[in-house]
Amino acid sequence: MAQGDRVAVTTRSGGAPAGALDVTCDVTDPTAVEAAFATIEAELGPVEVLVANAGVTADTLILRMSEEDWSSVIDTNLTGTFRLAKRAAKGMLRLRRGRIILISSVVGLLGSPGQVNYAASKAGLVGLARSLARELGSRSITTNVVAPGFVDTDMTAVLSEEQKAAIRTQVPLGRYADPAEVASAVTWLASDGAAYVTGAVIPVDGGLGMGH
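Request: output the structure for the sequence above.
Response:
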């Protein structure tokens, strides 16, 4: 919104930031995804930039991981993103322009014990994005991935101080990211300055995953 964009924010329970169009959507439901796009297109016009950021966790070691632990994470993080990208691409192909930005994780590149479901889903986004980059590039549609490290959010707030301190020792910059720092990478990928960037994985991880 600060760049002058008209922004819609989808959540399962509602509650978009002030100034954004508040749209309820569960990405695990194809009908809900279609309805959300219909609402957004009616209110704001064609979707020119998609930022796919839905993500859940169900952490446990693989021998204890249930089928539901696996399928629920994959369906939200990977299949849900497929649904969003497919529907967004439909309109972008008509426009002959667009930006698709998928939010992955350093865990998708490094792996993490107790997170085989989450890591697999986030790694899958890289293959999804790079395939879309090849499919859609001739229509001036770019597809890229942002891979954050540990970010100061509600998801990390549940960690103990000891856990947080241990994580910081692994990060060369020695701190968590601020959400605005991840948003800055997304904003750049959506800008004119990134028009020739596609199929890229942009790490915002304080150096944690360097080399990947």
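The chain has a mean pLDDT of 94.
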